[in-house]
């Protein structure tokens, strides 16, 4: 067990205080745990209780205030893009939509409205920074997969309002590199990384030391981007702390940086945080990736809560965008053994990569098999693998999913889908006026509540975006693209099988 669950004990020791405010919060933090359904919370709590041999609650258990309904405009089961747009713009839209409505027209977001009102703004995530959730808060495009366009808008280059983000942290550097670079994910020659530095004054960094040079937010200036990885940042269970800070470290650093800068300039801030990869492990049926990203989300939520105790001008709301995987605890009847998960050191994706290496190497068949038993199954904490299970590996559509499901079956858990589900998810909050959100709400109401608390007006922003005709044209789908996207319900499922993690 390489992870401590001391967060749990720390949470219990905290008094349940809510900032005694009569006014409005000055700053807002919205924290999105992507793909975190109600069963995921029980799953992580039960594991923490087993590890600690005690009955404890998770930090977020103490911050629960309500439920959120998540359906999109075109389906009862939302994706991350429609959900992010619902939170950011306060409108229901179609799956795949980034900051646009059902007619592909741009909608002003809370982050943009904040920026136009002189606030400082931040996006801090563990997926690619160009992924659907952060994109929905700061950019506009008909399809979430247009990540190069999203990157262009994030730095201010193709955004009609100019640069609207002051600090961003997350993965996805490949979308900032020209196609001549072997790591590039773009199909044009734009060197966005350099352009951001020279034309838009960004400090663009990748090295862990550059993050550390922010000194927990005491140093550093805007605009600042820390993008350490080409693709998503690592799952918490696989993270190399020499290369990548944790989500908690990034969240606290961003909070301090935004707080210092906004006090210097007598303004407010809006910060979007995301525990992005809880969702990816749900799609991948990987209990280990899911578990440790959830525990890290809890650590980060506790850190934000403690920060707010010292800064009661700031309020926090947190809610997933949707459930993922249809996680069930107790399959078959009444079985659910968290102890089984304690022996795995890293994610199923990590052991699937080891499997690929073993298979690619010129070992004898019997050496191959013993290495697979030892390094792949054994590493993942499956010590009594059967010969049928070993044989199944070579025909599995995804080795990572196959491994995850074998461990899950031994733990007594199961997933019913490779996609999202339509169940309500939990709303968490802390600080000034958040208790007003008690109850069951549409995701759009969550966004509208934060907007009203900050005294912002999204319609004004929509009007400004709409006034730019060339922009409105640019973000429309190609003539043959509309129908294709709108009814591509199997989207998330397909990309999972292609081994690409896009959710
Ligand atoms: C777990 O806690 C119970 C009750 O506090 C105690 O009796 C038991 O010995 C503990 N088990 C372990 C493995 O520490
Ligand atoms: C419209 O938006 C584009 C970015 O897409 C920007 O380059 C251009 O300057 C804007 N036009 C006006 C008139 O603001
Ligand atoms: C970049 O910084 C320079 C010097 O501070 C300033 O004059 C310029 O307007 C800035 N450019 C942008 C796009 O913010
Ligand atoms: C693989 O190893 C065997 C025996 O060690 C050897 O005969 C064979 O040439 C090797 N094949 C390759 C492609 O290296
Ligand atoms: C392997 O061991 C687990 C306990 O860790 C047990 O529940 C499971 O039935 C065993 N599986 C096989 C195939 O022996
Ligand atoms: C687990 O769920 C899958 C569907 O994803 C189903 O096919 C399978 O039978 C379930 N396993 C058990 C043990 O119920
Ligand atoms: C929205 O725009 C109107 C008209 O331009 C303006 O009077 C109002 O102050 C704006 N509201 C906000 C919150 O920016
Ligand atoms: Zn999502
Ligand atoms: Zn997803």
From TrEMBL:
GO terms for biological process: organophosphate metabolic process. Binds 1 Mg(2+) ion. Keywords: Hydrolase, Magnesium, Metal-binding, Phosphoprotein, Signal, Zinc. CDD domains: ALP. SMART domains: alkPPc (SM00098). Zn(2+) binds at residues 34, 279, 283, 321-322, 420. GO terms for molecular function: alkaline phosphatase activity; metal ion binding. Mg(2+) binds at residues 34, 131, 133, 274. Coiled coil: none annotated. The keyword DNA-binding does not apply. One of its GO terms (cellular component) is fungal-type vacuole membrane. Pfam families: Alk_phosphatase. InterPro entries: Alkaline_phosphatase, Alkaline_phosphatase_AS, Alkaline_phosphatase_core_sf. It is an enzyme of class 3 (hydrolase). It catalyses: a phosphate monoester + H2O = an alcohol + phosphate. Belongs to the alkaline phosphatase family. This is Alkaline phosphatase. It comes from Lipomyces tetrasporus.
């Amino acid at each position: 067990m390489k992870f401590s669950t001391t967060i749990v004990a720390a949470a219990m020791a905290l008094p349940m205080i809510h900032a005694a405010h009569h006014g409005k919060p000055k700053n807002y933090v919205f924290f999105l745990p992507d793909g975190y359904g109600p069963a995921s919370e029980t799953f992580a709590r039960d594991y923490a209780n087993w590890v600690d041999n005690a009955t404890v609650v998770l930090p977020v258990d103490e911050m629960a205030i309500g439920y959120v309904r998540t359906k999109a405009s075109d389906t009862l089961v939302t994706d991350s893009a429609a959900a992010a747009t619902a939170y950011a713009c306060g409108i229901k839209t179609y799956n795949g939509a980034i900051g646009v409505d059902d007619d592909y027209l741009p909608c002003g977001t809370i982050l943009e409205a904040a920026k136009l009102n002189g606030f400082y703004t931040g996006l801090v995530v563990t997926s690619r920074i160009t992924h659907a959730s952060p994109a929905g808060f700061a950019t506009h495009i008909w399809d979430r997969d247009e990540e190069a366009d999203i990157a262009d808008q994030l730095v201010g280059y193709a955004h009609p309002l100019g640069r609207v983000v002051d600090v961003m942290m997350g993965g996805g550097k490949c979308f900032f590199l020209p196609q001549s670079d072997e790591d590039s994910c773009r199909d044009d020659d734009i060197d966005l990384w350099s352009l951001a530095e020279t034309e838009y004054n960004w400090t663009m960094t990748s090295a862990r030391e550059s993050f550390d040079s922010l000194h927990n937010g005491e140093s550093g200036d805007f605009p600042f981007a820390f993008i350490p990885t080409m693709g998503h940042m690592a799952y918490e269970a696989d993270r190399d702390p020499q290369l990548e800070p944790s989500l908690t470290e990034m969240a606290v650093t961003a909070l301090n940086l935004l707080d210092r800068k906004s006090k210097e300039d007598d303004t407010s801030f809006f910060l979007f945080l995301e525990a992005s990869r809880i969702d990816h492990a749900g799609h991948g049926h990987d209990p280990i990736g899911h578990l440790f990203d959830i525990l890290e989300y809890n650590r980060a939520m506790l850190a934000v809560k403690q920060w707010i105790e010292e800064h009661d001008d700031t309020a926090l709301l947190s809610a997933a965008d949707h459930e993922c995987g249809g996680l069930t605890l107790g399959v078959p009847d009444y079985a659910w053994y968290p102890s089984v998960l304690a022996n795995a050191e890293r994610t199923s994706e990590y052991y699937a990569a080891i499997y690929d290496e073993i298979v690619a190497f010129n070992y004898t068949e019997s050496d191959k098999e013993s290495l697979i038993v030892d390094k792949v199954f054994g590493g993942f904490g499956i010590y009594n693998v059967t010969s049928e299970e070993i044989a199944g590996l070579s025909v599995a559509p995804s080795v990572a999913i196959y491994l995850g499901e074998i461990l899950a079956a031994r733990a007594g858990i199961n997933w019913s889908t490779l996609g999202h589900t339509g169940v309500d998810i939990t709303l968490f909050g802390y600080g000034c006026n958040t208790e007003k959100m008690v109850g069951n709400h549409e995701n759009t109401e969550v966004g509208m509540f934060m907007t009203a608390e900050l005294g912002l007006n999204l319609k004004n922003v929509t009007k400004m975006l709409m006034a730019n005709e060339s922009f409105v044209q640019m973000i429309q789908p190609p003539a043959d693209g509309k129908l294709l996207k709108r009814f591509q319900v199997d989207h998330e499922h397909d990309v999972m099988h292609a081994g690409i993690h896009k959710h």
